[in-house]
Amino acid sequence: MKKDLQIKTKKNNGILKKLPSAASFMFGCFLFLNLYAVTGQNPNSGSEGSIQENKNSLWYTSPASKWMEALPIGNGRLGAMVFGGVKEEKLQLNEESVWAGPPIPENRVGAHKSVEKARELIFQGDYQEANKLVQDDVMGPRIAPRSYQTLGDLVMNFNLQGEPQNYKRELNLNNAIAKTSFTVNGVNYTREYFSSAIDDAIVVVLTADQPKSISLELELLRKADFEVASIGRNRLKMWGQVSQKGKHLGVKYETQLMALPKGGKMTSGDGSITISKANSVVLLISAATDYNAEDPFSPLTQNLGAVCNSILKKAAKRSLKKVKQAHITDYQQFFNRVSLDLGGIKGEVKPTNERLEAVANGADDPSLMALYFQYGRYLLISSSRPGSLPANLQGIWNDHLVAPWNSDYHTNINMQMNYWPAEVANLSECHEPFFDFIESLVPSGKKTAKEVYNSDGFVVHHTTDVWHWTSPIGKVQYGMWPMGGAWCTRHFMEHYKFNGDTVFLKEQAYPIMKESAKFLLDWLTTDPRSGKLVSGPSTSPENKFYTPKNPEVFANLDMGNAMDQEIIWDNFTNVLEAAEILKIEDEFTHRVEAALAKLSLPKIGSDGRLMEWSQEFDEVDKGHRHLSHLYGLYPGDQFSESKTPYYIDAINRSIEYRLSNGGGHTGWSRAWIINFYARLKNSEKAYENIKALLAKSTAENLFDYHPPFQIDGNFGGTAGIAEMLMQSHETDENGTNIMNLLPALPSEWPKGSVTGLKARGGFEVDIVWSNGALQSVALLSQETKTLKLRIGSKIMEVELAAGEKQTIKEFK
Questions:
Q1: Mean pLDDT along residues 124-134
Q2: What would the pLDDT profile of 48-62 be if each residue is shown by its tens digit?
Q3: Looking at the whole model, is its pTM more than 0.90?
Q4: Measured distance between the N- and C-terminal CA atoms of the chain, rounded to whole angstroms
Q5: Are residues 325 and 377 located together in one domain of the fold?
Q6: Are 759 and 424 in contact (CB under 8 A)?
Q7: Which of 88, 197, 437, 535 could bridge across to 75 with cysteines, CB 3.0–4.6 Å?
């Protein structure tokens, strides 16, 4: 509903009892000291020097002028972008399940007949006709827009006269609190913002060091599909049902705001709250929808207003000190597990935007790279908590009604990249929403496998969303790719490898890997040209090639694309490894073993590059953003110097070719390249691409540019930095874990340390280095185990006792 049509309710003319002037002053002093006690920082400090004490801060000397400069806060479910305005402040709000709704894509039942015909055409070399057949008979329409949407805006209009001095806004990653501070007419103002997982609410704290200095008007607004009303004397609510211009009716939502001023006068009505001459103000924001993650088409029947009200009342009963401390304690149980020092701090630390600009102009800033790493961890904690939905293309932060690519879950790399740092960066719990969501796709994926391909098991294509569909849709260039589910199952095995949880392996990882493998076994067919098992028809995301019969025409579909074969090899290998651990041997595992032995493997072309397709096709986009055929290097572990040295040169040539033709031009693609070079132990190339990621694909608030904004580059960059410092994907012939320390340490990081990284095998590792050489490593194992350490060309064996940290300073 438009603003001038907002529901009008009875005005609240009640006036809060004023504190005497002296009491107001004492309250202000108390609040100032309270904030200092809780955060450990002077809430009104604005000097550059104070930032030196906290390397884990983003900070700026002016408000955000656009969304990509604002600072994100989140509790996994509920988020906001903080602009830091002075006279007008805006919080752009998000709740993870605010989605437009059906209709959703549907399966093309019986399409397997056309799939079989397309296979014959491809084997005969008629790629163009195969493309057309699959496009016409297999692909469903892409239904868009049908997007994840903004929850709305909280607008705060302050009655302030005069220009601000000593302005600073910051995001402190140590405590997950955003803060704006400035001085107007001799009064020091501080505004703090955080999203508490404990209280399930966004909290805003407005303070001043002089009494009666805070006056403002509060409004809740949205671009469409909303109504606003006042509730009682200190609350606003905004509610509606999400749609795309009246179509695609989605979730019903409600958000509520509670204002808790100290001192002054408060009035409410006409969908707004006015506060005059308060000493301080605390704002609490809650939100709820009727989205049912267990069954999206059966909405929850809860009273959304009652849910929001209950959250607010519960939080309001607790003191600000307790609310804030609970938030910090909860957040730090995740964040404090890992610290990173890459050196580089000398003198005063400049604002983040200035540091980013300096890197774009060629400067080296190792501490900015360390900040970027921790920022990625912060974003994952803030957008993916146990019980929440997984982080989408924008995490949870989106100001659109029609977001780019619907802000959905792209499973041809983007969703998976979001979770690359989860295990190694010691945030295993943040991985759980991913597992929950992929498991929720199994019923739909089994239906799609049967109806479209006449196959057993479950399948997911290149994208999906909160409505749990799995159909092939859109253009064959991106949509005809049934490998999304198989790729996602790798994460289940990785979680086991990092944590050693055999219950998880038995009850979650093995069952879903098996369902994927069942589909792949039915999907594979024998290539008459080689006698090997190949996948297809499918695209190599999202690339295309010129057809041999007509070099002026391009196609997308082939049989036996490198990425497909590598993902299938990965899935079958993980299934068999899990079965061995769980002591499972049956007809199914024998089928997998036989198929793996007959699986076609990627080839090396006449120019020495790893081939992306089954044949040496001429590429249309020689600098394409996807490097799909290198999956087996990273995130997979099919290719390595020790096991497959003949592939390593071919992989290097492939990366160099892409980069020389303009590749890596999107943030997430550049992040993938960092991980490739880290796996290849090419420290300087990995470092060069971190600099390029910061210089070319990073916004002022450190969000990743695709462009536009996609959060996957942030997470991929974080994983890449960890991969440069420690790798654990290899084992020896006896299955003993090999931990490679500082495998891709660049000369620009001569001295530093990292604590709390996790390694496969259930280890935690702290590393200290100086002059480019390892000084010490501290290892903690979940169980008594033997581990091999690789330091350069040296390998040493270490015996670790369960639960005891062992520090090693001599490396023989």
A1: 97
A2: 334 444 689 999 999
A3: yes
A4: 72
A5: no
A6: yes
A7: 197
